[in-house]
UniProtKB/TrEMBL annotation:
<dbReference type="InterPro" id="IPR015942">
    <property type="entry name" value="Asp/Glu/hydantoin_racemase"/>
</dbReference>
<dbReference type="InterPro" id="IPR001920">
    <property type="entry name" value="Asp/Glu_race"/>
</dbReference>
<dbReference type="InterPro" id="IPR018187">
    <property type="entry name" value="Asp/Glu_racemase_AS_1"/>
</dbReference>
<dbReference type="InterPro" id="IPR033134">
    <property type="entry name" value="Asp/Glu_racemase_AS_2"/>
</dbReference>
<dbReference type="Pfam" id="PF01177">
    <property type="entry name" value="Asp_Glu_race"/>
</dbReference>
<keyword id="KW-0413">Isomerase</keyword>
<protein>
    <submittedName>
        <fullName>Aspartate/glutamate racemase family protein</fullName>
    </submittedName>
</protein>
Length: 276
C-alpha cells in the first residue's frame, strides 16, 4: 500500500506521522514543493497546477491514495484534484477541526493562515458546524513559514501575536494549519489552560478507511520516499527540528509522543470534517 501526501512544505509531517503510527507497513510518498512554496500567497491557479502535477507524479509512482494535508490547498484545489483522479484514486482533503472543538461547548478560536481565515469555506464550516458556539477566527501571518524554516524565534513571535488576538474566553483552539501541530508545545506554553484540536489523526484514519485498510496492519516497515518539486530528494533539514520529522527521515517507528504533543485530537468519522 502506497499513500502519497502532497503539500508545499512541512505541513504534511503530522499526517504522515499518524499514517506511520497507524499503518507502519504502508509506503509513504512525501511530495513537497520547495520551488513553489509558500502556497498561501500564490494564486488559486498556481496552487491547483502544482497539486495536479504532484498528483500525476504520485500516481506514476504507484500511489493508491492522494492526501492533501494542507487546509489552504484543500480549500483552493481539492475539487480539481478529485476531478482528475477519482474514483480510481481516493483523494482525501484536510479542513480545520471546527466541529469537534465546538462540541466541547466553550468559545473556540480558529488559528489559520490568512488565506484559510478569509476563505468562504472556513466561514461556511463555522456557520454550519459551530452549533451556536462562539467562534473567533485568528489569522496567523508568518507562523507556517517560521515553522517550515525551523525558526524557533520567529515561531515564538508569531505564536505570541496569535495569542494576543485570541479572546481570553476561548478555551478551545483549532489548529487550522497543518504546520501548527509541529509547535504545539510552544503554543501550550502561552495557553496552558487551552485544549488544542487538529485534524491529522482523523485524516490518517480516513485515508485508511478509503483504502479498506485497518490500523495496525503488521508487516515489514514501509518505505518513506521524498519528492521535491518533481525531483527525488530528502526531507529539508528543518524537518529534523521536529521529532516526527526525524523519525520519518529515517523511516523509523513512530512513537505516540512524537505526534502533536499536548494536543487533544478527537478523531471524527464525519465526512463534513474531512471533506471526504
Amino acid at each position: 500500500m502506497t499513500v502519497a501526501l502532497i503539500d508545499s512544505g512541512l505541513g504534511l509531517l503530522p499526517t504522515a506521522g499518524w499514517l506511520r503510527r497507524l499503518a507502519p507497513s504502508a509506503d509513504l510518498l512525501l511530495l513537497l514543493d520547495p520551488d513553489g512554496m509558500p502556497w498561501g500567497s500564490k494564486s488559486a491557479r498556481f496552487v491547483t497546477e502544482r497539486l495536479l502535477a504532484a498528483g500525476e507524479i504520485a500516481v506514476e509512482r504507484g500511489a493508491q491514495a492522494l492526501v492533501v494535508p494542507c487546509n489552504t490547498a484543500t480549500v483552493t484545489a481539492i475539487d480539481a484534484l478529485r476531478a482528475n483522479f477519482e474514483p480510481g484514486i481516493p483523494v482525501i482533503g484536510t479542513v480545520p477541526a471546527v466541529k469537534p472543538a465546538a462540541g466541547a461547548g466553550a468559545p473556540v478560536a480558529v488559528w489559520a493562515t490568512v488565506r484559510t481565515t478569509e476563505s468562504d469555506y472556513q466561514k461556511r464550516l463555522i456557520a454550519e458546524h459551530a452549533d451556536g458556539v462562539p467562534v473567533f477566527p485568528v489569522a496567523c501571518p508568518g507562523l507556517a513559514e517560521a515553522v517550515d524554516r525551523g525558526d524557533t524565534a520567529a515561531t515564538d513571535r508569531a505564536v505570541a501575536a496569535a495569542i494576543e488576538q485570541t479572546p481570553r474566553a476561548c478555551s478551545s483552539i483549532v489548529l487550522g494549519c497543518t504546520h501548527y501541530p509541529l509547535v504545539a508545545s510552544q503554543i501550550m506554553r502561552g495557553l496552558p489552560a487551552a485544549t488544542l484540536y487538529d485534524s491529522a489523526e482523523a485524516v490518517a484514519r480516513q485515508t485508511l478507511r478509503r483504502l479498506d485498510a485497518r490500523p495496525g496492519d503488521s508487516g515489514e516497515p514501509g518505505r518513506v520516499d521524498v519528492i521535491l518539486s518533481g525531483r527525488p530528494g530528502a526531507l529539508p533539514p528543518a524537518a529534523s527540528r521536529y521529532p516526527v520529522g526525524r523519525a520519518l527521515a529515517t523511516a523509523a517507528a513512530m512513537p505516540l509522543d512524537f505526534l502533536t504533543p499536548a494536543v487533544s485530537a478527537p478523531c471524527s468519522t464525519s465526512d463534513t470534517l474531512l471533506l471526504e
